[in-house]
Design goal:
Layout (H helix, E strand, L loop, with lengths): L1 H9 L1 H14 L2 H7 L15 H15 L13 H25 L6 H15 L6 H8 L4 H24 L10 H12 L1 H20 L2 H36 L3 H28 L4 H12 L3 H11 L4 H29 L1
Helix pairs in contact: 1-11, 2-11, 3-11, 4-10, 4-11, 4-14, 5-6, 5-8, 5-12, 5-13, 6-12, 6-15, 7-8, 7-13, 8-9, 8-13, 9-10, 11-14, 11-15, 12-13, 12-15, 13-15, 14-15
């Protein structure tokens, strides 16, 4: 199991690329799977489908790997931690704002607004679970990486709706209804059930199990997480990619790729500035770089797939952001390894 999990983790970039090709060529299975839902079983009558289940699974597995005792050392640098949490959202938000005001100059308004909405959705997300695995792989400070994941998820019920709600004048008036629905889903019972509940349950389960048992289950958990991430990307790529290919545009494709890459790079640059100004040790800088450079696009895909069905370019931004941040993380990991040789 260790070998299979390590192989899957080392080649996750290629799996993502393969998933996008499959989604473009054979979207039918993904579109059919999107029709399945738990309608009528969720309080308030809201629909919850396979995307929400996959996100809940990702969050549960990530939380189950967190040992709260490891987070004690993070409190020794409270101001650095506070600065890192601010930068989790500040840098990507600036990219989304530049996108919203700059793209209409060179792209049609509808396309520019849709891309800006996707960028804003990614920017509003907490830190990705996968940043912990990348941090560990690059010999970074794992407790700091865990702290950024946990604290950003805890804070996002207040920060994320505020960022999305403030976007009414940025993403265009035509997007107002969709933004309001995103805010509602992120701040209501839907969010509590599919984000906070699996996170809390995973943390509680981790405290109840022995460290030895958790370690034995870790390879299987990594493998399940990767499969869930790939499935989530396929479900949304199956919706977005075929719609884009019906009217392909080189300018739009370049814009989406550039925005997705910029969101990750601005996070890494912010981490570099923080590490340099606060004179942080290399392992700590590594953890912050992965944390700030990787957004929880799984959660963003779940929201986008539920609310932005008629906005394939917005979904495509989130899909490409997933690939871009793993590319940046891979390059950062190799750079860290070379530096330590």
């Amino acid at each position: 199991m260790h070998r299979v999990a390590n192989f899957a983790r080392r080649h996750v970039l290629w799996w993502l690329v393969a998933v996008y090709f499959v989604a473009g060529l054979f979207p039918q299975l993904g579109l059919a799977a999107r029709e399945w839902n738990l309608a009528g079983r969720f309080p308030g009558g809201e629909q919850a489908g396979i995307s929400q289940l996959l996100v809940a699974l990702l969050l549960f597995i990530a939380a189950a790997s967190i040992d709260l005792k490891e987070l004690r050392s993070v409190g020794e640098r409270p101001w650095s931690l506070l600065a890192a949490l601010v930068l989790v959202w500040l840098g990507p938000l600036l990219v989304a704002l530049v996108t919203a005001f700059g793209l209409p100059i060179c792209l049609p308004t509808d396309a520019a607004n849709s891309i800006a909405l996707g960028a804003l959705l990614v920017a509003a997300m907490p830190v990705a679970n996968s940043s912990v695995a990348w941090t560990q792989h690059a010999q970074g400070d794992v407790p700091w990486s865990l702290a950024l994941v946990v604290l950003s998820i805890v804070l996002c019920p207040w920060i994320t709706p505020g960022l999305l709600g403030a976007a009414h004048g940025v993403a265009g008036s035509a997007q107002a209804e969709r933004i309001e629905e995103l805010v509602t889903r992120f701040s209501g019972g839907f969010f509590m059930a599919w984000v906070l509940a699996p996170t809390i349950l995973g943390i509680a389960l981790r405290q109840a199990f022995s460290a030895a048992r958790i370690e034995r289950l870790r390879p299987a958990a990594h493998l399940v997480s990767i499969v869930a991430l790939l499935l989530l990307n396929y479900l949304n790529a199956a919706l977005a990619i075929p719609q884009f290919l019906r009217q392909p545009s080189t300018g739009v494709a370049v814009a989406i790729a550039g925005v997705a890459l910029a969101i990750s790079l601005v996070g890494v640059f912010s981490a570099w500035l923080l590490g340099r100004s606060a004179e942080l040790e290399t392992p700590l800088r590594t953890a912050i770089a992965f944390g700030l450079g990787m957004k929880h696009t799984g959660l963003a895909l779940s929201l986008a797939g539920a609310v932005l069905v008629d906005q394939p370019l917005a979904i495509l931004v989130v899909v490409m952001a997933t690939l871009a941040q793993h590319l940046v993380a891979g390059a950062l990991s190799r750079q860290r390894k070379v530096a330590t040789v």
